[in-house]
Design goal:
The chain is mostly helical and about 400 residues long. It contains 18 helices and no strands.
């Protein structure tokens, strides 16, 4: 169902109250915050989790890898499975399931049970992103879609800055089980909030498996998906190993690395909103700017290793640039396939999650085979390639 809010001509005058985003947008942002926090929580709890369940750190890492793979599949398949369902009911159901999966994680008597719970988490991650990413246009007036999309996608950056560190702190203070229990309560609370504040959202266009090959035949959409795949693979290839890259800089200790990563996260929040504002007007120009900035910043970190001030400045610029990738790419996808927003968003979410897993895998092989610094060449090179893809698309992709 397309709401009247999507027609700019129906809103010739907008007062301050109309410009304010509704609580429904904040509730959807809370859902994205919850799934990203849940997805990345084991990163900060890996050692205690492995020790508590009697597995190696490498084996415990499956709690991050497995949900990512499942999320990529779920992003494509779940919208097809629930194509006739109200999207409010789908989101509420997924958040309830996320809460239950996190509760099972907290009570897991063995690593096998924990992995089973994390498979369910992956289903929720993919499903929430496939549905939530395209909701802004149905919740707000046309002139506010850009801001609403930025708020929904801010859940990614805020989870990195607040959600995961808070869960890690709770895990250190009590135990990793309490951390999972806290995100279980968060998921259930968000489900209740969504049920109260979201309007009825009948499916606007039923998603079928055949829609995905048809969408890939759209040149503009294909360019955007290729560009975001290159950017995300390059980013995660490099950022996954950013700690050893930072530790090579003179006078950088463990405490300073944590502060630098916090600065990166805060810059990412700012980049999300800046990218969303810019991309709402011109997604292609936003992706050109972001790709160029990421390529330059990541590659410049290679010779900057001897200077702490330069490294700090480049790391903050990295966070600022990458913070705009998700929201700018989503704006591109929505503009490229306005007749099939949810199917295009599902395709986008699937490719994004595959790119995360592939980036970490490629980065690991390069780091093990050549060295941590060489992942910067890989990440910067892929960002430069993304810049070329968007640039050569020319005005035909606009």
């Amino acid at each position: 169902m397309e709401t009247p809010t999507e027609t700019p001509a129906q809103t010739p005058h907008v007062d301050a109250r109309q410009r304010a985003l509704p609580l429904s947008v904040v509730a959807v942002a809370a859902a994205t915050f919850s799934v990203v926090t849940t997805e990345m929580l084991p990163v900060g709890l890996l050692t205690s989790l492995a020790s508590g369940l009697g597995v190696s750190d490498g084996t415990a890492g499956l709690t991050v890898t497995l949900p990512g793979v499942v999320a990529a599949l779920a992003a494509l398949l779940l919208p097809v499975a629930v194509r006739g369902a109200d999207r409010r009911a789908v989101l509420c159901g997924l958040m309830l399931l996320l809460g239950a999966a996190n509760l099972l994680s907290a009570l897991a008597p063995s690593f096998a049970v924990l992995l089973a719970a994390r498979i369910v988490v992956g289903l929720c991650i993919g499903g929430v992103w496939a549905v939530a990413a395209s909701l802004a246009v149905r919740l707000v007036r046309a002139e506010s879609v850009g801001r609403a999309t930025a708020v929904i996608f801010s859940g990614i950056a805020v989870a990195s800055v607040l959600g995961v560190p808070a869960g890690t702190f709770l895990g250190e203070l009590a135990s990793w089980r309490w951390a999972f229990g806290a995100v279980a309560a968060l998921g259930l609370g968000v489900a209740a909030l969504l049920a109260v504040v979201l309007p009825a959202l009948p499916p606007s266009e039923p998603v079928r498996l055949g829609a995905f090959p048809a969408l890939l035949r759209l040149p503009r959409l294909r360019v955007g998906l290729i560009a975001v795949a290159l950017l995300v693979v390059g980013h995660f290839a490099a950022y996954t190993y950013v700690r050893p890259v930072l530790e090579r800089v003179p006078d950088v200790g463990a405490g300073l690395v944590s502060g630098l990563l916090l600065s990166y996260g805060v810059a990412g929040i700012a980049g999300n909103f800046l990218g969303g504002t810019f991309a709402a007007r011109d997604p292609r120009r936003a992706l050109l700017l972001i790709s160029a900035a990421l390529a330059a910043v990541v590659l410049l970190l290679v010779p900057a290793g001897s200077s702490l001030p330069v490294t700090v400045a480049l790391l903050v610029a990295w966070g600022l640039a990458y913070g705009g990738v998700s929201v700018s790419s989503q704006n591109w996808v929505m503009a490229a396939a306005p007749q099939a927003r949810e199917a295009a968003s599902a395709l986008f979410a699937g490719i994004f999650n595959v790119a995360i897993a592939l980036g970490a895998l490629l980065g690991g092989r390069v780091a093990d085979g050549l060295g941590a610094t060489d992942v910067l060449w890989l990440g910067g090179g892929l960002a430069a390639l993304a810049l070329g893809v968007v640039a050569t698309a020319g005005r035909g992709a606009r």
